[in-house]
Write a structure and sequence with these properties.
With 430 residues, the chain is mainly alpha-helical. Helices cover 50% and strands 5% of the residues.
Length: 430
């Protein structure tokens, strides 16, 4: 027995030694330089999607309001005259097509980019990665104009009003205080938290949880989190290499987060079933409109509850439209933009969301190559917001560097990883 004990003890010690000294093989390594180019690609492509989408924003909402917004665009409308939106405006472009800020000009901020900018700036300067309600309130008040023309609408505006009354997030999205809690707002303000936690959706959701619930509850919150998960998965290795297959895989993974009983989950499944049957995207959009805005199935009632424009700003119908552009775009940047622009409702939102995602996956250089021209790398946050250095003029490079700095902290503080300074990479435990 003593000899057997010594034998087992010897090999036990050898096993422990090997475990303690070997280099783990299941870590993920991400190149920081490549990630920086990807973040620049995100900001650039998001701006392209945002401004191209603004051309058709609220042109077509299905159910007309005072005779405006009836019907929908089709693929044949690309390149044709833009029709006035609900407010009688079509001042971005006379025709429906790509809208660029050329190399020597400056991209203007909009509500699909500016609050994400605020959140990134807030995290960059914060001592803690766990944002508090008071921090978010202070950032909004410091950087958002209080007057009426402040590029806030529905839930964002109501949350801002409550903040000015001293109410802190997440109470600013409490349905008792904020009747717009299931509007689109969180979808367009929080996706970026996914990029702060590469490969780790759970951590990304933790980082963005309070920001999401600053303006959203229930389906609107779950949809916003769907987008965050997509952004976090963009840097994760998958069984698929091409953009088409990888985005499909990412979407299916994010779908698992949506509660089965939610109309958000049912909308996703509805669009997916049509896509899998190879039904043209226009017919899928028309069927989505009929099922949810006209018949109001699966508990979706915002076409009735929202008296102003039949739920044209609602999280649900715009999520459905966004999934149409995501799936039918099949990873093609231009095609995804075109479908998002023509699909209807708040068209600049899904075009900004998914173009930002694809732009990240491609990187800035490939985005510019796709459009065959160098584009502006400058960004004017003061077009819509206030209180930033350099009179609000920033660059995508600097914005990407701020993002890299945040990820550095997340990798170390939240993931238990490290920075390999020699290889300029993050080592992230799986």
């Amino acid at each position: 027995m003593p000899s057997l004990f010594k034998y087992l003890r010897f090999w036990g010690l050898i096993f422990i030694f090997i475990q303690c000294t070997r280099v783990p093989m299941n870590n993920t390594t991400i190149d920081r330089k490549i990630y920086k180019d990807q973040l620049e690609g995100f900001w650039l492509a998001q701006c392209i999607g945002n401004w191209t989408g603004l051309i058709t924003e609220m042109d077509k909402i299905g159910i007309p309001v005072e005779g405006k917004g009836e019907g929908f665009y089709t693929r044949e409308d690309w390149g044709k005259p833009d029709q006035p939106n609900l407010w009688g405006s079509n001042n971005y472009s006379e025709t429906i097509g790509f809208l660029f800020a050329e190399k020597d000009s400056i991209w203007g901020a909009d509500d699909d980019t500016d609050i994400e900018y605020i959140y990134q700036d807030l995290l960059y300067h914060s001592k803690s990665l766990d944002l508090s309600g008071s921090q978010i309130r202070e950032a909004w008040i410091n950087h958002i104009h209080k007057e009426e023309e402040n590029f806030l609408w529905v839930s964002n505006q109501r949350a801002f009003d409550l903040m000015n009354e001293g109410i802190l997030p997440p109470e600013t999205s409490d349905p008792k205080r904020n009747p717009y809690y299931e509007m689109i707002d969180a979808q367009l303000t929080t996706e970026i938290f996914g990029f702060f936690a590469p490969t780790k959706p759970k951590i990304a959701l933790e980082l963005g949880s309070l920001a999401v619930r600053t303006t959203a509850r229930e389906n609107a919150a779950w949809i916003a989190e769907f987008n965050i998960i997509m952004y976090a998965l963009a840097s994760k290795k998958s069984p698929h290499s091409g953009l088409k297959d990888k985005t499909m895989w990412m979407a299916q993974e994010a779908r698992k987060h949506l509660p089965e009983s939610s109309y958000a989950a049912k909308m996703y499944d509805f669009v997916l079933s049509y896509y899998q049957q190879q039904i043209p995207w226009e017919q899928t959009r028309d069927a989505l409109h009929e099922k949810y805005q006209i018949r109001q199935e699966d508990g979706y009632q915002w076409a009735t509850l929202d008296k102003s424009c039949h739920g044209c700003f609602a999280a649900g119908i715009n999520f459905g439209a966004s999934i149409i552009s995501l799936l039918y775009g099949e990873g093609d940047l231009k095609e995804t933009i075109k479908i998002g622009v023509l699909a209807g409702w708040d068209s600049d939102n899904p075009t900004a969301t998914w173009r930002g995602l694809l732009g990240f996956m491609m990187g800035k250089k490939k985005v510019e190559k796709t459009f065959g021209r160098p584009l502006s790398s400058k960004f004017n946050i003061h077009r819509t917001r206030k209180g930033f250095p350099n009179n609000g003029i920033d660059t995508f490079e600097n914005m990407a560097n701020m993002g890299i700095s945040i990820v550095d902290r997340v990798v170390i503080e939240k993931m238990g990883g490290r920075i390999d300074t020699e290889k300029d990479s993050w080592i992230i435990p799986n």
